[in-house]
Amino acid sequence: MTEPTVLSRTGGPSLPQERNVVTDIPGPESLARLERKKAFVADGVGTMLPVFIEAAGGGILRDVDGNSLIDLGSGIAVTSVGNAADSVVRRVQAQVAAFTHTCFMITPYDGYVDVCAKLAQLTPGDHAKKSALFNSGAEAVENAVKIARVATGRDAVGVFEHAYHGRTNLTMAMTSKNMPYKHGFGPFAGEVYRAPMSYPFRDGLSGEQAAARAIDVLDKQVGADNLACVVIEPILGEGGFVVPAPGFLPALAAWAADKGVVFIADEIQSGFCRTGAWFACDEEGVVPDLVTTAKGIAGGLPLAGVTGRAELMDAVHVGGLGGTYGGNPVACAAALGSIEEMETHDLAARAREIGATMHSRLTALQEQHAVIGDLRGRGAMMAIELCAPGTTDPDPARTAAVSAYCHQQGVVTLTCGTWGNVFRFLPPLSIPDALLDEGFDVVAEAFAATA
Ligand SMILES: Cc1ncc(COP(=O)(O)O)c(C=O)c1O
Is the Cβ atom of 302 under 6 angstroms away from ligand 1? Predict the structure, then answer.
């Protein structure tokens, strides 16, 4: 049990791409390990599907009981290039053998600068851009707010209903949902104000109408002159993959530009080819002042970034941004490997193909099951929202039942949404077509079996 698993031999793209369920899920070996987890890991760190993984790659997660599961979640939008992808493994192995850490704030190295150069090239807009690197998405969001505050000399932060920005004190304040992210953890950071989000399924508003509603709240209840920034996920992540109505983001960005409010796009879940473009903002022609990235950027290693207008990024005094591990050389090597995979294999195009398959499978399912109230998303970031038929009353019980069935059959599905009634599909972009199809066969079976 304590032997390290060598992924280069057993995982990565060479792992057989077949679903194979040979025990109950979780199986006996996973159950034994779960007992150890219970003994040594804090209960607050939950696990959705307690199968212990020993190898992964392509579209498969293989557990310690020998079950091969279809991965429709990518560890929450992280392993977009697939687990142990070739370029990631090659570059990480070379880097780890060369040196593992110097602290970029002490003595720099190329990998950090190379990642920042790539971020300048790939993020929306062709203006001069600079970046700073961090360890987690929450840390990137916190730092984006710090930069906006220094640059504007203002305090207030505008955020949106159903938003998720992380679990640190400031990002908890910015996150919308109480349970499990915030409950009992207050008091939270101040000067955070929440505006209504565009949620077409629930509000029926056009993008322009929804933007006018949000701007009215920010203008009247906060005052544009007090706002350092607005922070928005261009497609909501944890909040339910809500795609705002067309025109919402451009109207909000135009208002922010007019008022000198820094427009921050949190692309931590939606970025790096997930939606079929490098970034979700690209689709609407929105050019944010600052962009936060993490998750898919580094193929599973912890790395995050804030990228933005050079003059904004440079507003902060020397030494004001950083952290011991931010932009760690191994994580940077992984990011350069991931970006290489995305560019070489045109993974944005692959995300659009996967999106087309998922959309047609889910449309067929929606026609058969009235409980599927809404189908939405973009590219390989797609979701269905389950509600009592013909209403917008959330149905989290059915969502849980369908989910449990999928897990039992060896398909890793994720749920999300303010009411826990949304299935989100985020397969690795390395998943073969046959496996994707089989995954959705099981999802269809799950709806039929729980009807
Ligand atoms: C949009 C968004 N922002 C921020 C975060 C926080 O990222 P991390 O968990 O790496 O701190 C997440 C994580 O799910 C996210 O989806």
Answer: no
